[in-house]
Amino acid sequence: MSHVPVFMAPRATPLPPALTENLVTGALSGVAVDAVLYPIDSIKTNAQAKKAFSFSDIKKLYSGILPTLVGTVPASAVFYCFYELSKKLLTENRENISKTNLYLISTSVAEVTACAVRLPFEIVKQKMQVSGSSSVMSAIYDVTQREGLMSFLGKSYFVMIVREIPFDCIQYFLWETFKEKAKRDFGKFSKKYPSITSAICGGLAGGIAGFLTTPMDVIKSRQIIYV
């Protein structure tokens, strides 16, 4: 009787704790931010589309929130994962890399990957924000029925990363810079209240980045809405 060898399937390698933490933290923070700021985002999108927004439209402020939250989870997780992973790899392989280059390269890599995940959800979201529709399937159908769909997606992705990469590079560079400055100048407060310090630094960084990249954000929105 011949012996039949039994091959054991290799065990799945668990994700490193730090990587898992970045995935979860990124996803949760992305959902929280989008949920809280979504009404403001809706008003902004309508303004960029040159569509007047009145008090009667208040009930439509959350049009498109579902695809946004669904897309935010994987996109934010991918972003934070690749951001931290890129920083780790660059630090290990380029010991003399400057902090500026470290932040800018890591952010760019993270954004290119995250935008690929976020784009379909962003298109559906902005279509719903402008139309005021509450039907996700209707918005998806309208997008998929357009002529030259792949060309539209390609152009939208390009415009999206042209806007998002500068925004995130500025935001994360300033965020890291402000946090380091806070540690130096407000050491006791920063050590005692790290979350508050990080939030203040992040708010300042995001506001400055948003202001500087508004022109590209308008172009991105109009590409998605009108083309």
TrEMBL record:
Cell location: Membrane
Solcar repeats: 17-89, 98-181
Membrane topology: Multi-pass membrane protein
UniProt keyword Membrane, yes or no: yes
This protein's record includes keyword Repeat: yes
UniProt entry keywords in alphabetical sequence: Membrane, Repeat, Transmembrane, Transmembrane helix, Transport
Entry's transmembrane regions: 61-82, 193-212
UniProt cross-references to Pfam families, sorted A to Z: Mito_carr
GO cellular component entries: membrane
Family the UniProt entry places it in: Belongs to the mitochondrial carrier (TC 2.A.29) family.
Protein name as annotated: Mitochondrial carrier protein
Source organism of this protein record: Plasmodium fragile
